[in-house]
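User: Sequence for MtrAB system accessory lipoprotein LpqB below. Tokens please.
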Amino acid sequence: MRRAEPSARRAGPLAVAVLALALGLSGCVRLPESGPVVQDDRVTPRDDAPGAFYVPSGPRPGESAADVVRHFMEAMTATPVQTGIAREFLADEDAATWEPERETLTYSGALRPVARAGGSRVDVRLPDANRLDRRGSWQGEVAAGAGELSFPMVREAGEWRIAEAPDALIVPEDWFENRFRAVSLYFFDPEAEILVPEPVFLPDGEQLATTLVRRLVEGPGSGRADVSRSFLPREASLEMSVTVSAAGLADVVLQGERALPDEETLGLLLAQLAWTLRQDPAIEAFRVTLAGEPVRLADGSSEIPVEYGEEYSPSVSASSSRLFGLQDGLLVDVSPDEGVMPVRGAFGTSRYGLRDIAVDMTGDLVAGVTDDGATILLGGVDDDEQAVRPVLDGGEDLAEPSWDHAGRLWTLDRTAEGARVVVVSGRDLREVAVPGVTGRDVTDLQVSRDGSRLVAAVRGAPGTSDRVVAHRVRYDRDGEVRAVTGGRLVLTGGEDPLRVIDLEWSEPTTIAVVERISRGIWTARLAPVDGSRPSTDDLPPASFDREPVRRVVAAPDDDLPTYLMTDSGTQLLGTPGTTDVPPDVVSLTYVG
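Assistant: Structure tokens for MtrAB system accessory lipoprotein LpqB:
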């Protein structure tokens, strides 16, 4: 049985919610759902079962130029993934220089290669094409015209061959969906306090462990040192495949480093490897050889369990699992099984006129937005001696704030001039410019627990859809926010405009979104922050007809269920009917 990926493939109660949301987060990649299908002379995508062994045919004598291109495209669907046979369709010069590992292009539907100029050129249009970069990071729809491919052709020994092919693996969407897996590469934040997952798509099966380590060794990418950093040595390289024994022990041999790093760095390095390798269901533990020397733990063991480094979890390992809400103006601890109890701090004993709350990771501090949306008050959850004080005043329409692992409080103020984003750190206040958010009509903003990402719901003009966008946050080594990068589109509407009602982090790289797609239909779905889409094999999202959904309550924790707050009560996602949460409890929330 496949073990779930910790960042995006999880078991436990939330898995029920994931199934109810029907985004199939176990080994299925997420790609766009629509597109025209050409029914003519075409390359027909294969429909082999995942993992099926398939060796395509090489060039055949007397093939036309169009057939050579057609069979070249088919040859890229070899299983396991390999491009040796596809290279045989290339002219000798291009075969020696072709680099299909540079990127991946996927398409939906069938292809129809068309020969031009007597066969000296063959044109192919990729319907609904999407792109992934060399690392496997989802890049979304290709730029205009990039899906129109032109293959110059030459004669070699009397046979047509491709003179120049795009440096890309070009494959059908459903083939890709069955043979690549959504995983994450784990790096650290600039302060080396928490792991930051970077989602990628990699070939599944026996190649997975090797590819995971190769991509991890390559690092987070140039220009990302203030977003995430790696503690694998820069000089290191993986020159041998990662072998995995029948008992689940993986051997990782890294070359190029002259000496073992210090103990602290070594621990961070092993945490990166453990979190990355645990996504391969065949691996239970691993050994590392670095610069010719075996790496050992403090107890002398050279076998590192994949559970190593739990304290660096991007979900924050020490986070509280408590569920909070407001009832009759008081902060309450909510237990669907045991009832509702006011907390012992000031917010649980006196009414401060709060409409929204956010509780820090440890469950010790609560930030509350006042009913007029002008002030955020900070107080203790259970400490009845901690005084309540304002940390932000003079707002116009403050939204529900959110906390990250470092105790930074992120706040959205929806002003008449547009959105303002403010970060509260201790007693310091700083406004942060967020491209595409600042000055726009924004309804919601949430920070990820690791602090590396912001997601925001940007309101569309009348008659158009809202947009959910994800941004990366850049820090210096002292944890000060340097900048926020431009956003990536995560979710928007199709033919029917949608309105985003609420969003919340459900996994370190996935958000739960409640949206209204018409006057009488509300839906709840999961959306990966890289902008990839659900597979066409997945079931529809959870849908509510004439039942307004006001809020989603989720957390990136294996053991915590997801709730939806509707007009008729609070529902446990995946279970019909209401829960035992009293209907007068509002602003239900986990920590974060």
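The longest strand covers residues 148-156.
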